[in-house]
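This follows on from our talk about sequence and fold. I would like you to pick a protein and set down its sequence and fold. Go ahead and set the record down below:
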Amino acid sequence: MTDRKSLRFTMRDKRRALSAEQQREASLMLGEHLAAHRLFQLAHRIAFYLPNDGEIDLSYLMEYAWQQNKHCYLPVLGPRNGRRMWFLPYRSDTQLIPNRFGIPEPVHSRRDRLFSPMSLDLVLMPLVAFDRAGNRVGMGGGFYDRTFGFRRYRRHWQRPWLLGTAYDFQQVEQIDSAAWDVPLDGIATEQGIQRFPAYTPD
């Protein structure tokens, strides 16, 4: 088993140590793998994220998604005590504002219609580390696990697909999963796409 606190420290340090060129090359390669994959091609409503703290950048893939007339979304944080996320449409002209963690998200008000996570086809999830069984370590806030916790109670696999995105070096041998963790259906890195045992597409 791998201690999550030390794992976060080690992997975040490795991400930040990458040069701009290394980050760009990995991002382009990941985008190429995903753009050619059936999982991405079948999805119409896709949740992206804006990179923070060295996370792999999906902007090249997002540009391609817009060209393919796919609907792109970004997460927005709910109330402070809720620790869940909703989603708003994201286009090249969308105005952004930093949330309470300093991460840009679409400007919105309480009157805006926030997009339900259950209505997404594909969610591209940032992470700090992952293992070959589909377990992930995030930044520690638990936002993705709470937001997509409904996936744990379904007897049959349904959307949205949850696909982690990371650098290949972020894979570790084993992560001790917690009861509230929502496992990934797959992982995309600059080396390609892995499907995990629980992944059962229709």
